[in-house]
Amino acid sequence: MSSTDYLNNISLYFSMYVGVFILVIGILGNIFNILVLLSLKIFRENSCAFYIKAMSCLNIGQLLASLLPRILNLWFSIDWSVASLAYCKIRMYVFQVCTVTSFTCMCLATIDQYLTTCSYPRLQRLSNIKFAYRCFTIVMLFWILHGILVLIYTNYVVLSPAGDYICGISNKIYQNYNTYGFTLVLISSLPVLITVLSGSLAYHNVTQLAYRAIPLVRRELDKQLTVMVLVQVVFNFCVIVPYIIAYMINLYANVSKDSYSYAQIQLLRSITINTFYSYFAVSINDYL
Questions:
Q1: Angle, to 10 degrees, between the axis of helix 47-62 and the axis of helix 3-39?
Q2: The G-protein coupled receptors family 1 profile domain covers which part of the protein (predicted)?
């Protein structure tokens, strides 16, 4: 077996076994997350907890729409997107809407923790459950409408003169937007930037809580939620930044598909894609 074949096999088996592990842990972890946050009244009426619950529901949808079909294809060579164009379009749509809305909820949760721990009453008033409902509704409707383009431009794309085809984006302009605008900005760089910035501000606010006249129960709740959010922010940074780097290397690398360098890049991609999926799998309650 050549070195190239050896790396290709590592990539394949890594995706097969790690993917199954992430899928199972992700589904169970997000369900547990939702049940815990729904079972306690103090979390049911908290805006940050609401964003986390919504994010958990969206994470389940993302894993089922994206990771599950990927695993079925790797393990059993089942690719329903080739057999049905309708399934192909719906899968791409659900994947896009759930992914970008999940990241938006994470951003809103960190911003909410900054607002609720802020010393300015006017900003604190923006952190309430009714305002969270409105924000989520607007965000959800926006991304649902935004995803209509993927329904329009997702079609069968011919790969070779022999007639081989895959489910993909057929419009060149939208393909460029999906590559650079959606993947490199909306579901990677921008969420990292927003969560790191707002998370840092929330951490600064929490360090000042001891000097304010705040009820003990409220203070401890703010600390607990801020810790949950901040650890998630650090985890997101660790799994998303490597994905961005590997994605860009794969995008701009000019190497032959039969070369050893290409096999190395694909191994890197396989590892970082699966770690990227772990964002949707790791329950925020696991940190406590």
A1: 140
A2: 29-288
* Cα(114)–Cα(109) distance, integer angstroms: 9
Task: Assign 170 to helix, strand or coil.
Answer: coil
**DSSP calls for 49-66:** HHHHHHHHHHHHHHIIII
Return per-residue pLDDT of the chain as tens, 288 residues: 678 888 889 999 999 999 999 999 999 999 998 998 888 777 788 898 899 999 999 999 999 999 999 999 899 888 888 888 899 999 999 999 999 999 999 999 999 989 988 878 888 888 889 999 999 999 999 999 999 999 999 998 877 666 677 888 989 999 999 999 999 999 999 999 999 999 999 888 877 765 555 554 555 666 777 788 888 899 999 999 999 999 999 888 877 777 788 888 989 999 999 999 999 997 665 544
Residue 113 CA to residue 226 CA, distance in Å, equals 6
Exposed, middle or buried: residue 145 (CB in 10 Å: 0-12, 13-18, 19+)? exposed
Three-class SS state of 85: helix
- For the chain, domains (ranges, CATH) are 3-280 (1.20.1070.10)
SS percent in the chain: helix, strand, coil, step 5: 80, 5, 15
Query: What is the C-alpha to C-alpha distance for residues 133 and 62, in angstroms, rounded to an integer?
Result: 21
69 near 80, Cβ under 8 Å?
A: yes
- Judged by phi (left if over 0) then psi (alpha if -120 to 50, else beta), residue 137 lies in alpha
CA angle 31, 33, 38 (to 5 degrees): 95
